[in-house]
Predict the structure.
Amino acid sequence: QVQLVESGGDLVQAGGSLRLTCTASGSIFSINVMGWYRQAPGKQRELVALISGDGIRNYTDSVKGRFTIFRDSRKNTVYLQMNSLKPEDTAVYYCNADIRAIPGRYTNYWGQGTQVTVSS
């Protein structure tokens, strides 16, 4: 059984920083794209950042220059470093990954979410 477990969410003041961590576990053969999404109250879930298996990154415009996504493939882990946080970054952050289990084909997985709250 493959699962994604996030951690690192917290309450932080505007201008502060947080690092989110997401680790995939289970019978994993390989992981392709990993990413972070977020969902604020009353809003749809939106993409924050993606990183491909060969390290290509994409960010939504609102976090460019403030957030950095990176991964440690040896640990099946993806991180989201969030700097200069703003109240509008407040949301539940979800990890997402395309994982090929043993045996199997690539399947998309979601983590359970971690709450990030930025106070003004």
